[in-house]
Amino acid sequence: MAHIIGAIGTTHVPAIGGAIAKGVQHDPYWKPFFDGFPSAHCWLDQARPDVVVVFYNDHGLNFFLDKMPTFAIGAANEYKNADEGWGIPVSRPFPGDAALSWHIIESLVAEEFDVTTCQEMLVDHAFTIPLALLWPGDDNRPVRTVPIEINTVQHPLPTPARCLKLGQAVGRAIERYAADISVLVVGSGGLSHQLDGKRAGFINKEFDLMCLDKLVSDPAALTRYSTVRIVEEGGSQGVEILNWIAMRGALAGQVTKVHSNYHIPISNTASALLVLQNDPPPIEMRMAG
Amino acid sequence: MKQGIPGTTIFDGVQAQRGFALNRMCFSFNGAENRAAFLADEEAYCDRYGLTDEQRTAVKARNVLAMIEAGGNVYYLAKLAGIFGLNVQDIGAQQTGMSVDAFKAKLRDAGR
Fold first, then answer.
1. Per-residue confidence at B112, pLDDT binned at 50, 70, 90?
2. How many CB pairs under 8 A join A and B?
């Protein structure tokens, strides 16, 4: 059976793509951010996932306001990146896992998550940058991928409670998948930042650190926030924490924090990295469940 | 602004309807040929997408707050800013009335 080995949440600021392309990871501005990743690489070397399920938000590459799904899932064997308009290099296509995608889709719809299914789906920096950070180098990652896109553009956005439930349903689907594969779940974006309006540049360290703590030990605590309240506390684009909440929902075992990093600022954003390991629950809990 | 977060516009159905033409134009800037067409004849390009007078004026003035007021969403507007080589610190500085250096310092200070 498939098993979820853990989850990694990471910031996806486009400028990171530029920094990688220019090779400036060791410059003083970037170093505190990139220094977070060797620990994640070590853990990945041990954990060796076959597939990565990425919760992310499209920023106007694949989806526009003419048709804006709340939740969309890729159902293809390949996902292309493309020009987003401001000059970060275009990545090579990413291998998908259509069989796993369709299994997740079947399971989600059976559980009343009526997702949009996409046999063609351009993936933007919110998908490509986490993978570039986790497997640095030659744009050639040893994993297949399943993109799950959450609307963070046009309100009403899905609630944190709904995103946690989506993640839980995705987790159940994966754990029921017959193939013997290891799966990593990624949550992309955040943490606090705001690009627009007179409050541009807003960052809230206290809120972010609370979120990072609750994502480990008590993700349900984050479901008491409305999405508008998250905008207030985390900034207009800080709502990308929804991707992290969905990610955390997929972990149903014993969750331990392997590593975290938090640094302000990268571009206009409070950057964060969180590596969580997911071990099977103790036998007595499984019996009770 | 009805939810009342200072300096923040919630991009909801009202804004999405108001800004549709402007955001659609900005969405087109994913394509290099469209960016070139905009630069070659900005007026004609705005015509093609049916921008309102308010949106046109905001674009002409390169005024991000006015574009947001006219329904622009920053994810799409960022593609317009990119045509002029402006990044999110540049547009942050413009919206807050600060110099770019002062805006960057404000971001750094948030980490202290």
1. confident
2. 132
Distance to chain A for B109, nearest Cα, Å: 8
Contacts of A25 (CB under 8 A, 6+ apart): A19, A31, A34
Architecture of domain B13-85: Orthogonal Bundle (1.10)
DSSP code of A42?
H
Is A125 an annotated catalytic residue? yes
Annotated catalytic, A103?
Answer: no
**ipTM of the complex in this document:** 0.95
Least CB–CB distance from A83: residue in B31, B73, B108:
B31
**Homologous superfamily, domain A3-288:** LigB-like (3.40.830.10)
Across the interface, do B110 and A156 touch by the CB < 8 Å criterion? no
Give the torsion sign (CA, A247, A248, A252, A253).
positive
pTM above 0.90, yes or no: yes
User: In this predicted model, what pLDDT tens digit does every residue of A4-55 receive, in sequence order?
Assistant: 999 999 999 999 999 999 999 999 999 999 999 999 999 999 999 999 999 9
